[in-house]
Amino acid sequence: MLMSSQVESFVMHCGEMGSRWGFNRTVGQMYGLLIINEQALSAIQISEALNISRGNVSMGIKELQSWRLVQVQHKPKDRKEYYTPAGSIWEMAIRVFEERRKREVDPTLSLLRSNLLETPNTQEALFAQEKMKEIHDLLETITHWAAELQSLSPEKLNTLMKLGAGVSKVIDMKDRLLK
Questions:
Q1: Domain ranges of the chain
Q2: CATH T-level topology, domain 5-85
Q3: Over the stretch 149-177, which tens digit does the pLDDT of each residue have?
Q4: Can you give the residue ranges of the HTH marR-type domain (predicted)?
């Protein structure tokens, strides 16, 4: 499978972004390749396009499945499995956010909750606990806000995002009116 320079550029960039999204370069490239192709791809096609081993493809597919980012398709009279992105770009973004929350934010919140249950016995411990409480409260707020955003339809979420700084202006106006 030959990629145009434009597609190859996108796929390679997805590989570089993979580590920022929470998975390795090869998995990022695989996902980029799947996103940019109209047709579902077999493991052999992925392997050939990215010049990686079938074993590497198999491990990458398992990783993408654990993130719920790919789905398997079968074609009539063909024993091979074909892979395609699971859902829209919006759904992909939500899944990546959910998985990162589960893998990064939730364990941090658990640790903070546990530490906040202990009674500090020094001024340093009290200061540290106050900072941990601030971090906990911020993460809780972000988590609840994100959950509310995830319940919105892509259309409403897109409209909200386009409002951007306009929301801040409305809040400022409300504050001025209440003075």
A1: 5-85, 89-164
A2: Arc Repressor Mutant, subunit A (1.10.10)
A3: 888 888 888 888 888 767 778 888 877 88
A4: 29-80
